[in-house]
Design goal:
346 residues; 6 strands
């Protein structure tokens, strides 16, 4: 199952369990903790009182009562004290304990808030990195639908250098794309039957008039003799190329779809149907999972009927990471979320 990032109110999610960033006496408080207690109703507080509290880094479970979720997993995160008191290890243990409890109960879907990143003062960028590391590590070994719930993209505070590099790459690529588009339009104009004014326009931009432009030699396309011949000449499909690439990379199917942050059922559809057409984010997720270079990525996209466009911020961000050999799909998704773009895979 994939890891999804949602901008939502965690108390409204219909899933097997939501995780509550609780305090140690489980009495309810502010932020996510207070919101979950209010939405679940007074029975949740009575259930929590019977548990006798919870230690930092540990987790306990109750019913969800009036929540759409069936259960609430309560975990106590660390209060930030500067980083020298084992806060990172305790926060990681919160995720691990919650996931272990969910796995033991055979839960299929669990939604997490960003634990300790509110009133407990944990730096949001570090809290996010720990959350993504622990959730993605769990998914490498288990099947579960995990959701990280945030209120806005400001939580995803990319490093200043990474954000600047991405923004610069986007700006440069946009400028290049628009310049190329203008030049293409000028050449097209000057290639057409021209008036005297159009000749002057071409001269202003250093372009030759139509008569002087080289013309590519026309090639006669070979026509298939029959429909059967045309069908035999069909190229391999997206599914066929994907499966071939998996074999060439020496990967297993499971390793590939997990690394692509793609659901097992979706991968089964792709494998069983040679003509299956995935969404563009799914196709790109597999390109990242297979660590394809830009040429191979464009070829795989083409098989699915897509292309990388320098007029799309989403495409440019993907190109930025692939061109630098960065294939961590969760890091790419963090950047996409920070720039309000669709995510890869899920």
């Amino acid at each position: 199952m994939p890891l999804r990032i949602l901008r939502a109110d965690i108390t409204t999610l219909s899933c097997d369990a939501v995780v509550n960033a609780a305090n140690s006496n489980l009495s309810g408080g502010g932020g996510v903790d207070g919101a979950i207690h209010r939405a679940a109703g007074p029975k949740l507080q009575k259930a929590c009182a019977k548990l006798g509290g919870c230690l930092p880094g540990h987790a306990v479970i109750t019913r969800g009562y009036d929540l759409p979720a069936h259960y609430v997993i309560h975990t106590v995160g660390p209060v930030w004290q500067g980083g020298a008191a084992g806060e990172e290890q305790t926060l990681a243990a919160c995720y691990d304990s919650s996931l272990a409890l969910a796995h033991a109960r055979r839960l299929r879907s669990v939604a997490f808030p960003l634990i300790s990143a509110g009133s407990f003062g944990f730096p949001k960028d570090l809290a996010l990195r720990i959350a993504m590391d622990r959730l993605s590590a769990f998914l490498l070994e288990h099947e579960m639908d995990l959701i990280l719930v945030v209120y806005d993209s400001a939580v995803f505070q990319l490093s200043r250098k990474l954000r600047t590099d991405i923004e610069s790459y986007i700006d440069e690529t946009y400028v290049r794309e628009h310049r190329n588009a203008r030049e293409s339009n000028r050449v097209e104009l000057c290639s057409a039957p021209q008036t005297a004014a159009q000749d002057l326009f071409c001269a202003d931009y250093g372009l030759a008039p139509a008569a002087a432009l080289p013309r590519p030699a026309a090639k006669a396309a070979k026509k298939p003799a029959s429909l059967e011949e045309a069908l035999r000449a069909m190229d391999e499909s997206f599914s066929q190329m994907l499966l071939r690439k998996i074999d060439e990379k020496g990967m297993t199917d499971v390793a590939c779809y997990k690394k692509a942050n793609v659901d097992r059922k979706l991968f089964s559809k792709i494998r069983s149907n040679p003509q299956y057409k995935p969404s563009k984010p799914t196709a790109l997720a597999f390109a990242v999972a297979l660590e394809l270079d830009l040429v191979e990525t464009r070829e795989l996209l083409y098989k699915a009927g897509y292309a990388l466009s320098h007029s799309s911020k989403f495409d440019v961000i993907i190109e930025f990471f692939i061109s630098r050999g960065v294939y961590d799909i969760y890091q790419i998704n963090e950047a996409l979320f920070a720039f309000d773009q669709s995510l890869l895979g899920a």
